[in-house]
Design brief:
Blueprint (H helix, E strand, L loop, with lengths): L18 H10 L2 H63 L10
InterPro entries: Tom22, Tom22_pln
Main location: mitochondrion
Keywords: Membrane, Mitochondrion, Mitochondrion outer membrane, Protein transport, Receptor, Translocation, Transmembrane, Transmembrane helix, Transport
């Protein structure tokens, strides 16, 4: 197996390599193309790692929010409803309404 057998050759009907194939091969073998391919590969790798770590951070932030913040919001809402109910009962009984507690 020779070194040229692995590559696809563009030939015309007479078996000669065409102009476009020559130009394409010449351009694709330049160091600039190899450098660009390497940098594109590096950028894809970094992007993949960044997306993966961002996903992990979003998961941690989301679960922390659900475990710590949501119960706090529910409890604060429950407390507010209780205070409103207490104020309604006081107004029905004729007692003067209390000023809201300042903390």
């Amino acid at each position: 197996m020779s070194s040229g057998q692995g590559k696809k050759r563009l030939t015309n009907n007479s078996g000669e390599v065409g102009f476009l194939a020559k130009v394409t091969r010449r351009v694709s073998d330049t160091p600039i193309v190899a450098y660009t391919k390497q940098k594109a590969s590096d950028a894809a790798y970094v992007s993949h790692k960044l997306l993966k770590s961002t996903g992990k951070a979003a998961w941690i932030a989301g679960t922390t929010f659900l475990i710590l913040v949501v119960p706090l919001i529910i409890e604060m809402d429950r407390e507010q409803q209780f205070n409103e109910l207490e104020m309604q009962q006081q107004s029905l009984l004729g007692a003067p309404p209390l000023a809201p507690a300042q903390k």
